[in-house]
Amino acid sequence: MCIQGKILSHFKVYAQDMEAGKIIQVFAESGFQIDPEALDILRMSASPELIQDVLKSIDNSVLVVGTEHIKTSSTITVLSDITNQSTCIGEYTDFVQYFKHRHSLLGDMLRKRISGRPIESIKKRNLDTREQLSLIGMIMDIRTTANGHKLIEIEDTTGTISVLIHKEKDKELFELANTILLDEVIGVTGTLSSDGNLMFANKIIRPDIPNTQRTMLDRARAKGKAVFISDIHVGSKTFLEDAWLNFVEWLGDDINGINYLVIAGDVVDGIGVFPNQDKELAILDIYEQYERAAAYLEAVPKHIKIVISPGNHDAVRQAEPQPRLPERITSVFRSDITFVGNPAMVDIGGAKVLIYHGRSMDDIIASIPGFSYADPTKPMSEMLKLRHLSPIYGGRVSIAPEKEDHFVIDLVPDILHCGHVHTVGVSRYRDVLTVNSGTWQSQTEFQKRMNLKPMPARATVVDLASMDYRVMSFLPA
Ligand SMILES: [Fe+2]
Fold first, then answer.
1. pTM
2. Dist. CA 88 → ligand 1 center (Å)
3. One domain, residues 196 and 227
4. Same domain? 61 vs 121
5. Ligand 1 centroid to 132 CA: how many Å?
6. CA of 74 to the centre of ligand 1 (A)
């Protein structure tokens, strides 16, 4: 059998169940090894076509297939997306499985740094109250005691325990304790009370992302210029058409050399998203809103590849993760647009971009003292530290209990792109560029009442090779 036929027969068997071992096997049978990062990208893409492309493009001089061999020129590859993978029906048992999966994935990341013991075994131990013990668990409750200390309740699959963080013992530890969120998974090291029911924390660790610099090789791998925007809100009376047309004209100018346009949700204003929304709408029909949006994007030059992920104003299920827009809507847009779910990880020009509309920022900002809508990159850094896009269950985000937790940040992105809050912020957390791309509508009545000040008509331009960025304003002079 020719090599192509051999590969294709593998795909038939494994396309539904793309495990690392099987990808390694496919490469091994063609005489190649594969490095762990390249393996991760291929595994998460679950794309037999991508593997086929890689195998076709490498020659026999290659011994180990690396990330540099994964096709990067002006291409968009979807690495992970909930679309067509939703399994939930919303039963209680689904939630049990969902949280178990979260605990297990994030627990595995923490176990590389501390050796957590099962909570029940720790509580029974009770031999020496000076002995340092570690555990890994999910935050079930957070309280402040009458004396101002933090008391958190942590659960793992064996039991629960209360953990006290003393307000004066370690200032840095106490500051970290103030940022702890419900339902996140953390590791704690501390000593036990004599009855074994309370732990006094000495150290708290989060899954976090590695503190390594991207290598020169990585930087050379990514190329092209990408523009990040979100929250266009076509159909709203406050949509800033003049600014939008300025923006499209700028995109069309070859001198700017733009290759990609990434849109992180709220393409249209939607219908019935909040009470009395109809009074704020210029287009009252959801399909007409999308037809108008499609016409606006039609004017974007064809060489610019577009990715669209939905938000809470879009016409998909409200529970997150959200699948991509349905066929009835995507079919009115130009056919070269890549529609993905929310969240989704895509490779654009060799850079890994994690797109999440960002509704969880409402919950994170409300939970952490000092956080505000004025700086949306702070909650985005928290997401990276937690390795989770939407930890809090039961807040503003309605979480669908999928079998797997699609909010866990498994593969570390080069760029985390959010929207939703309508303010602009670009920052870096370790090696990751965090972009919140603002909006294309001026202040709404609701925002006036809430005293929220949007930053409209901005676009963030990123050079994917250097990760240098520029925020541009398209407000008419
Ligand atoms: Fe929005």
1. 0.85
2. 26
3. no
4. no
5. 47
6. 28
